[in-house]
Amino acid sequence: AASAGILGDMPRLDYSGGVSCPSLLLEPARTNLFQNSEYFSASTWQGITGGTLTENDATSPEGVQNATKIEGDGSSTAIRLFDFQNVSSAGDYSFSFFAKAGTANFIQISLLGYDGGGQASFDLSNGTIDDAANGSIEDYGNGWYRCTCIKSIGATDLTGSANLYVRKSLTANWDTAAEANGKNVYIYGAQMEAGSYPTSYVPSYGSATARAAEPSALNKSDLISDGFFSSSELTWFIDVDLYQRDGGSTVAPRLISSSNNQVFIGF
Questions:
Q1: Side-by-side strand order, sheet with 79-85
Q2: What is the pLDDT of residues 169-199, one digit of tens each?
Q3: 178: DSSP letter
């Protein structure tokens, strides 16, 4: 896209794991409930305590200088960035953002206001999480990690606001206010979505932003006349991951029938 412009017919591809040959990125519809996912000084965020924000201070995973620096000002042992986000229905919610160590190595996110909240702490030097049951951390290269915290919100908890804390510290045990002075980490791309796992980042600029689901089937009745293939001679290549089968059965892809201009692949 950088050299050819936007390619309208190009599907989204997944290069995770450093592979050279990607797979199709097929995801369900999700909405980033944060109204400003990159501009943390926006009024939709509730401000920062114990520190300052410097926008566009470093290069983000996007490759653009639009990452934000969070820096301690010496007034508190921890720096907190808030977003009060109401949710309308019970269920699992995933809270994620990208973070990179600066002069500090640790960062924490927590959801408070709902049944005591859930939280996870991340070591941005070693790429580790303190409690994998509450979330995950994923290496995005160049020191950047995507940090995720997952919380199940009950129906009786919907009266409050989802208070997302992004907190920075120098050590896992927190610091004195003097030690926090001038220490910093970098953040980018906050996302809050309904679901038990995070999907690919959906940027938002002033309002909650949705991404439609990709189709998981071709839905073509005639692959040749519909232009999927250019001739009647074609080769099928199927990459299959078989994770479950009935005991005693033989499971392998095979050509079932090729008659009346129809081809069926079965297992």
A1: 48-49, 79-85, 162-169, 106-112, 118-123, 128-129
A2: 655 555 677 777 888 899 999 998 999 889 9
A3: H
Residues 6+ apart with CB under 8 A from 5: none
Closest CA to 188 of 98, 108, 69: 98
DSSP secondary structure string for all residues of 109-169: EEEESSTT-EEEEEETTTTEES-GGGEEEEEEETTEEEEEEEEEE-GGGTTS-EEEEEEEE
Listed as own residue / partner, the contacts of 15-18 with beta carbons closer than 8 Å and 24 or more positions apart are none
**Residue listed under structure tokens 């980490």:** 185
Name the nearest CA neighbour of 36 among 211, 166, 206. 206
Q: In a 3-state reduction of DSSP, which class is residue 179?
A: helix
Q: How many C-alpha atoms does 252 have within 13 Å on its Cβ side?
A: 4
pLDDT attached to residue 20:
82
Three-class DSSP category at 29: coil
Return the ∠ at Cα 185 (arms to 167 and 144), rounded to 5°. Answer: 110
Whole-model pTM: value is 0.75
Residue segments in the chain with a per-residue pLDDT below the cut of 70? 1-9, 84-86, 111-118, 156-175, 215-234, 236, 238, 240-267
pLDDT tens digits along 117-162? 567 889 999 999 987 777 899 999 999 999 998 888 777 666 555 5
